[in-house]
Amino acid sequence: MTAFPKIIQGGMGVAISNWKLARAVSRLGQLGVVSGTGIETILARRLQLGDPGGAVRRALAHFPLPAVVERVLADYFIESGKPDGSPFRLVPKASLKPSPRFVEPVVVGAFVEVFLAKEGHEGLVGINLLEKIQLTTLPALFGAMLAGVACVLMGAGIPRAIPGALDRLAVGEPAGLKIDVEGSLPGEEFVSTFDPKAFCGGTAPTLQRPKFFAVISSATLAITLARKSNGRVDGFIVEGDTAGGHNAPPRGPMQISSRGEPVYGPRDAPELGKIRALGLPFWLAGSYGQPGKLEAALHLGAAGIQVGTAFAFCEESGLHPEFKQQAIELSRAGRAEVFTDPLASPTGFPFKVAAVPGTLSDPKIFAARERICDVGALRRPYRKADGTVGYRCPSEPVEDYVRKGGRAEETEGRKCVCNGLVATAGFAQVLPESGTEPALVTAGNDFEKIAQFLPPKANSYTAADVIRFLLGPTCWTSTPPTPLMPQESA
Question: How far is residue 84 from each of residues 30, 75, 91, measured CA to CA in Å?
């Protein structure tokens, strides 16, 4: 990466920051980012819908291990798409010792998303992952690197081990990540591993080591990562509490406002002077999709800004068109609202929920949903009495969570973020008894202002409209966007 972009598109949700959005942003000289969260589920469901347009299979034709592709297609591809109203076949759940039938869709899914985002242009493409979702990290990184990903962004935790993992994967060596296991004994370690040579059948390719940008909320975390990570950290995304998705909890004891939201104060403001002193590039995030915000960030010493919410509702994003249109109409009418829910996410991190009709933001829809944990991306490993590892989620059926040693009060108010976000991207599970899974739309505080990106007399806007708005009319890249070949427009 020879030059840093001024705008980084946020890696949002599950398939909201999809390959179409990332490609559109990258072609315009900025950093397009695909979401790696739940990538195995998205791959499997696209294939079960028949891969309309053939983009997934086009990417699979370039995957270097044909036998892996054959197995993935045999497991999930349905030529004419699954029948309406029938359930999706599930991908096996993540575990410390996963089967190849789990690992392969993760690697392939990440490869496909990055490959398609990079197709037809020379722009930079990144991938966003969550530190809290640890068991899929290594195979997802390897798949993205196979496709030539330029950088990796990771937050929702302290990703000290990721730089070293990137170093090892780049040279085909096994990489390991220490896994957080609730109830583990002093000195007891649990490690997830991935061996590129074993995956590739004996010989692994040498790959480009992508840049690593950590998503942080404080100077303390930036200093820790810069000085104590097991490899090179290349930059930071400094994210405030107004950004969408998961937010870092407030520092100190949790206080709740009269609205029921976490209270953030002066202690939660990042100390940019200390971050600047580290000498690494950083981008500011959280309500930066506004006029003049890029210029203000540059004045503070930032390399630029990261913007998510504005891109989440543009034409190219993976958000279901129904929710896009509802959101834009709410913004136009001045009725767009976001609630920072301290309980919704099973991770324990505050999670921003956009109030969109027909989704889990409606208390009646939330109360009517049957609790089920069939995706399981946010399950937490825990130590059983016999020393083995089990998996539980505060959003699963209460009796199951309690049976596994959890406390019933930890399940109160928890939403199924996995199923909700997958449904938001148009891949909702359909179950014979409980019906279609409801969506869960997340957005930052800029949600109320997304109508500002609409061109005159238009009902939708594009990623180019967002970039033009943020940069201003005289700040486009020196070369026009790369035209796409016809076969690349799917």
Answer: 39, 19, 19
Which are the contacts of 472, defined by CB distance < 8 A and separation ≥ 6?
Answer: none
Q: Of 410, 419, 337, 426, which is closest to residue 378 (Cα–Cα)? A: 419
Residue spans of the domains in the chain: they are 7-320+453-481
Q: How far is CA 290 from CA 191, 238, 297, 309, in A?
A: 43, 17, 11, 11
pLDDT of res. 1: 53
Which residue reads 């053939």 in tokens? 54
Of 56, 19, 48, give the one whose Cα is nearest residue 35. Answer: 19
Percent of the chain with pLDDT over 70: 96
The CA-atom distances, in angstroms, between 204 and each of 145, 169, 194, 262 are 12, 9, 12, 47
* Fold entry, domain 7-320+453-481: TIM Barrel (3.20.20)
- How far is Cα 233 from Cα 165, in angstroms, rounded to an integer? 12
Write the Ramachandran bin of 194: left for phi over 0, alpha for psi from -120 to 50, otherwise beta: beta
Q: Give CB contacts under 8 A, 24+ apart, made by 449-458.
A: 449/289, 449/290, 449/331, 449/336, 450/309, 450/310, 450/313, 450/327, 450/328, 450/331, 450/336, 451/328, 451/331, 451/332, 453/310, 453/314, 454/328, 454/332
DSSP 446: G
Highest averaged pLDDT of the listed ranges 104-108, 282-286, 288-292: 104-108
- CA–CA gap between residue 38 and residue 133 (Å, rounded): 9
User: Model confidence over 320-357: pLDDT tens digits?
Assistant: 999 999 999 999 999 999 999 999 999 888 999 999 99
Sequence-ordered strand ranges (E) for 245-350: 282-285, 304-307, 338-341
Grade residue 477 by pLDDT with cuts at 50, 70 and 90: very low
The Cα–Cα gap between 390 and 185 comes to 15
